[in-house]
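Thread: Newbie trying to understand structure tokens

Hi all, I'm a second-year student working on a class project, and my supervisor (Dr. K.) asked me to get a predicted structure for one chain before our next meeting. I've only ever worked with sequences, so writing a 3D structure as a token string is new to me. If someone could post the tokens and maybe explain what I'm looking at, I'd be very grateful. Here's the chain:
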Amino acid sequence: MRVSLLPEGSASLCEKSEKVSYKEALEIVKKLRWIIAHAPWGNPVGMAAPQIGINKRVFVALNKAYINPTLVRFNLGGTSIMSEGCYSIPHQAFSVKRHDQVRVTYTNEAGDRVVETLHGWEARVVQHEYDHIEGILIDSPRP
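---
Reply by user tm_fold:
Sure, no problem. This is what the structure looks like when written as tokens:
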């Protein structure tokens, strides 16, 4: 399998992704896992379909697939600012403010609908990848 990352500045990275069928999502997840395993630099903890030129609502974060996710950000846990990197803007780091707690609803690889509340690092990684399917890059202005 050969999968390529879109080059920095690709316009489609800033487009909101469309829902995906379960069958198509499983094929995309294979590609995302391949690119994570064969990353040209660093050690990625996640990758979203738009980063490989597929504008569908699927990503892999911390070795878990999220198909057609929806995300609710909670202010209950507060927010924190941390440095993040991104394969769509290579070799740069950005200070990003994110919620410390989120609730995500998604379909997993087994086809089950899942609702989870995530905290800390896991919440941060999922928000980063979720932003990709919303067409938001790490250097985009934030409210």
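A couple of things are worth pointing out once you decode it. The chain has one domain: 11-133. The longest strand covers residues 64-86. Feel free to ask follow-ups in this thread.
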